[in-house]
Amino acid sequence: MIWFTAMTGIVAGSAILYLIRRDHLAVHHGAWWITAGFSMLGLGLFPPLVNGFAKLIGVTYAPIVAVLIAFVALLIKTLLSDIDASKGEVERHRLVQRIALLEARIQDLESQQTER
Amino acid sequence: MPYDTTYIVIPAHEEERSVGAVVAGLYELPHVRVIVVDDASRDNTAVEARRAGAEVISLCTRLGAWRATQAGMRRALFLGAKRVATVDADGQHTPKSVGILLEEAAKGKSDVVIGADLARGSAFRMLAWRLHRKFSGLALRDLTSGLRAYNAKALRLLAGRSATSYLYQDVGILLLLQRDGLSIVEIPVKMERRDDGHSRIFGTWASVLRYMVYTMIIGITKRNH
Asked: How many domains does chain B divide into?
């Protein structure tokens, strides 16, 4: 079981590093995933960490703590990426408008030139 | 005294059959200049609008009626507009009702004038309006009317980035105007029934549902207290 979780962490970590290296993933997004990858690796190799933490906060069934942390992390990440997407959408819409406005300006200038 | 030109912005997506007549009709009004914003149509909307004498600006991807309107407002502001009216391309707003709207706007008593036709409400539309009034706290009757006149103050607000995130020129835009303390009045006008096609919002069930949910969320989250 330890090897399974450790392998998952290693695979996820290397995939993220590869994606950043190939510019498929921007560095600022990568930071989050690298952290996630290392956490998986750490918890995979040292399960007692989870057990200890579970005991500390008074949870009797330790594995659920890891699941809960993963769930919250994913929730935050999805929210952040939707916020990013919303900003990007507004940006894109403004740009499409701007292109149309610039085209109109070009037409203005062209018709001024033919008038001369 | 020279009159200020009123710019009339018409967002149009695939309205080749009606847009020409709409533009021609509007040029019967004094001191107007018509800007048609072609919202990535694949038909001859731009050609027909230009033939009727409108200035056409074309969006390269479809942004929807409100964002197309906003592009037209930005163009009008660039051209020095002090007042902009928005009119639908499908012919439901007659030159006569636009004239009534502009007369009211010219009095300068309020920042925004809405041409409201309460008779056009089907039972469902009435229910939708009532719900959205409740959620948004807006005291206006015809929340979805696309026939509106804005003064320079309203235009500067609506041309800005904060207005770009909206999908429809209705509750969200009205709340934005209200938040900034702009005055909004409604005047009764009579709208034509659409010759072809249906309402874009109250068309298919899917679009109705999307509109209702979207507008409800806007009403709840953006309500001014």
From this structure: 1
